[in-house]
Structures are given as C-alpha cells and as structure tokens.
Amino acid sequence: MNILCAGAAQGLVKALQGVFLELTGAKVEGRFGAVGAMKEALLAGEPCDVMIVTEAMISSLQADGRLAPGSEAALGRVRTGIAVRAGDAVPAMASPDDLKAALLAASSIYLPDMQRSTAGIHCSAVLVELGIAEAVSSRLRTFPNGGTAMRELAADRHPGAIGCTQVTEIRYTPGVALVGALPEAFELATVYAAAVSAATRQPDLARRFVELIAGPRSRCLREQGGFEFTASMPSGGRLPG
Known about the structure:
Layout: E1 2-6, H1 10-24, E2 29-33, H2 35-43, E3 50-54, H3 55-63, E4 73-85, H4 96-105, E5 109-112, H5 118-130, H6 133-136, E6 140-143, H7 146-155, E7 162-166, H8 167-171, E8 176-181, E9 189-196, H9 203-214, H10 219-225
Parallel strand pairs: 1-2, 1-3, 5-6, 5-7
Antiparallel strand pairs: 3-9, 4-7, 4-8, 4-9
Helix pairs in contact: 1-9
C-alpha cells in the first residue's frame, strides 16, 4: 500500500508499519516530504492509496476529486518549534526577543523547504517579521523536509546550531532536543489528517490504515510524538463537519 505523507507524520507512519503488516499482511510503502511536494506527487499520478497532509490540503484535494469524500480523519494538531543538538545549551524562547536573539546567535539554522513545507514557509515569514532575514541568510540550511533538516542538525559539530520545524519531526529525530514551541506571537499549530485516495485500487485496506493512524489505537503514540488534540477532535480522529 502506497502512502504520500507530510514529514510531520513520517515518524508515526514508520512506527505503525509493523503493526499494520501484522494486522493485515500488507506492507506500507511511504514517500515523505513537504506538503507541497506530496501534492505535486499526487497530481503527477504517483501511486497513492492514503494521503497524509494538512487538514486544509485534504479538504482542497477532496473538492478537486483527488481524495475520497468522507474518508478523512484527523491525526492531531502539531506546533512548530525550535530544536538544538542534544546536550547543547538551550536558549530562552519565551518571547519574540528571545527568539530573535537565539537566531542571530546561531552558527547555522536548519529548516525544511521554505517554499513547499508548512513549517518552512512559516519560519521564512517569521525571519522577515523579526527583521533578520538578510542578517541570517548565509547561515540558513534548508532541506526537502523537517526530518532531514533535523538529522543534519544532529550531525552538525559546530556549537550554536539551531533548527526550526514541526515538533513531531524534532521529537522523532535522535540527536536533537526540543527547546519548545515558537513564542505565542509566532505560534503555528497545524492539524494534519489522513484520507483515502480516490484512485486507490484497495479502498478497504486504505480505510483500515486511516483508522489505525488516526484512531484510538494510536492515540498514545501520537501524543508521545507531539500531536495534540482539541475538544472538536474526537478520540477516533474524525474531523468535525
């Protein structure tokens, strides 16, 4: 079964691959990356049984007939946060001034794609709003998704490197530590959801995977990875409508 998946949910999908194989006998093949890249892949005809991207993109692709209506379920809400290498000094992050000082002091700043990823687009806008985009431009290190950016941050041996991406991508990456979510003034909390592709040849299997990844069986795993839940998001994950 083929899955196109935003980087924010990559760790979750990989953690559930073995469970799904045991339950159904089906092997999950996932492609992971920025939400914009996943949309491009779907529209280009890449094999897809289940898509996991932002709630907003799911709705848009359902309206276009690319994803099956009524098949969607929410995984949870994910905040954008700041990371450092495990063991490095943790900068203050309580205010916009703290964030600005930390970014200006960083030896390198690791980010996901600043044009196609949810966190990368947001981080780019934050740099502009803080008035430091030009000052830190030579220290930006961008990668196709946040997971790759965090792995590169973990491998950076220079003191003072910092990263910014979705909290789930930070928590699922060995060698980096979550400092915290962005200060309230720059907060970004994105709901991710899964839905069945309208072109799938195995809809029952696809629905079972959506039920597994967004349902009560994986809720604790999602919480541990950084997904959050709201009153409007039932334990089964179904999006309100």
